[in-house]
Every structure is written in structure tokens, then in C-alpha cells.
Amino acid sequence: MNKPNVKMGPIDFVLFSTIMLLVAIGVIMVYSASSYSAFFSSATNHDSMYFLKKQGFSAIIGIVAMFFTIKIDYHKIKKHTKLAMIVTIILLAAVFAFPATNGARRWIRLGGPFSLQPSEIAKYIVVLYMAKSIERKGERIKSLTHGIIPYLMVSGFYAGMVLAEKNLSIASVIMIVTLIVLYVSGAKTSHMIGLVGIVALAGVAGIVLEPYRMARFTSFLDPWRDPKGDGYQLIQSLLALGSGGIWGMGLGRSRQKCYYIPEPHNDFIFSIIGEELGLIGCTLIVILFIVFIWRGIVTAVKAKDTYGTLLATGITAVIAVQAIINIAVVTGLMPVTGVPLPFISYGGSSLIFNMVAAGVLLNISRQKEYN
After folding, report:
1. CA–CA separation, 368 and 366 (whole Å)
2. Where are the domains of the chain?
3. What residues form the membrane-spanning segments (predicted)?
């Protein structure tokens, strides 16, 4: 029997357009959310465009990197997976050589205003490893000892290193994505139910054993009990969303960004979007992420091999899980965590690596089989 001829087709234009729209909105909203505090801060030399310049520069690098990965056959990543895993471990360990920021060690300072956050790489490295290994393992994935536990150990190791950096949110993303990829790969439902319980217990332990995380959790249940302390950020976020109403106050006219919400261009940028662009703007963002998830699932289903299916699933899951958690936190549906809104929140490392991963996803969408 003749093997099907594989050729590169056009990219998924809907997926590509969605990604570019999210990035464009992100750059605009980072400027809008950060301009006031940047103008009045000596750390930014009173430059209202300080964060816009950095985010715009990262967006340009990310777009170039995305087009590069769109052109490169995603199968070529396989042979570099082990090296990438080792380098990521080194980078995760290297953060401890740098001074802590707000009690957390998450960044490698590269000189000047530039830094690297290795945890942004780790979440995708786990996906690359699982896609490569599960394809080779085949039906043995249904085994608990040979199919499930090894992946939990590897993912748990990376999540543990990220957790040691005081970053429970990204560690949680890694483990949730691991469960999603295992389920899609054909793991037994009975095993998955047990795994979900174990991961949930680990998450509860991570909250209970750290007093500041426990304080965040209790403040989420009733933020008005401590409005000037642990509940402050959530209350200000809800005020921003409420002030925006349906149509919003207008781009650039947020009041909560004026030192009410700490660093509004980071994890709580969605609340500024709600204040300035209203329910309409928030709905647009949610729709864009739903479209991204939809096209990501379509790409995974239509991928020409198991490796492509699992890789597309993992990349889509990383973006989806982060978006869901961030929006849930900002709207008061979850305790406050440090998960950025993909493509939109300020952060060079996050934006660049998300766009590299998006390029891989688009490359998978290009490859189809023709008999």
C-alpha cells in the first residue's frame, strides 16, 4: 500500500487572525493600563511609553519567532526535546542565583530591563516531552505503572522546581495540562479520576502550607473582611469591572489604573479592559479565546499523527487553562493567583514563548494527508 503524500498546506487563517488580534489588543491595553503609573514613576524615568516600548519589542520578536516556527516542520522538534529539557532544568535552577522580587525568585536578569522567566518555557517543555513519549508508548499509556506514573513524575519534577520559585500558579498549570494530555492520549477514566483527586489534594496542600496563600484563599471567600489587606486587589478589580458597565468608560480613561490596582498591566489587565471597554470589550476577549480553543481542537483532531495531535492539544491547553484561570481570578471566581492573561498581559518571556508555541500550532495546522 502506498504511503500518503504529505505536503504543507495553508495555515489555519482563523487561528492566525485570532492570535494576531489578541497580541494587538494586548499591546494597546498594556500601554493604556501602564501609562499613568509609568509617567509618575522614577524607575521608568517618567516615560509613559516605557512598558509599551518593552511589550511592543517583545511582540515584534514573538511575531518573527512565530513565523519561523510556522515554516519549520514540527517533527524536527523531536530530536531536540531531551536537550531542551536539560536546558530548562538548568534555567529553572539558575533563578536562585538572582535576588528575589516580592519574595519570589522567578527571573533571570539579562542586564538592563531585560529578564527571562524559565517557568514560561517549562510548561511547554512538559508538553513536548509528553507528545514525543506517548506517541512511542502507544497503548501502554493505559497502564498505571508504565503509562501514567512516569509522566506524573516528570511533570511533577518540573512543577516542583517552579513551585520552589514561589510560583504555585504556573506549577498548577503544568499539572492540569499534564492531566488533559494524558486523558486525550487514551488513559483510563478510572486512573484519571484518581489523578485529578491527587492533583487537587496537592493544590490544597500548597495553599494550606503557605500562610500568604491561605490568606489569599480566605480573602477570596470574603474580600470585604480585609478591604485594605488581602482583599484589596480583588475589590479594586470588581470596582473596575463594575465601573465599566456595558460600553466602558473609554480607552485610556480608567481610574483604577491610577495606583488603585497594583501593576494593572500585569495579571489584572482584564479588569482594566472591563473598565475602559466595558462588557463589550470583555466579551470580545472571551470570544477570541473561545475561537482559539476551538481552532486548536480542530488542529489537534486533523493532525496527521499522534505526535501532532498531542502537541496541538498541549499547546491549546496551556493557553486555555491560563486564560480561564486569569479571567476567573479577576472576576472573583477563584482565589488571587499570578497567572497572566496569554498574549495580553505585560511580560516579554510569556508573550514570546506563547507566540513560539502558537507558531508550532499553526505549523501543525498546515500539514495534512493526501492519498
Report:
1. 6
2. 8-370
3. 12-31, 51-70, 82-101, 168-185, 192-209, 277-298, 310-331, 343-364
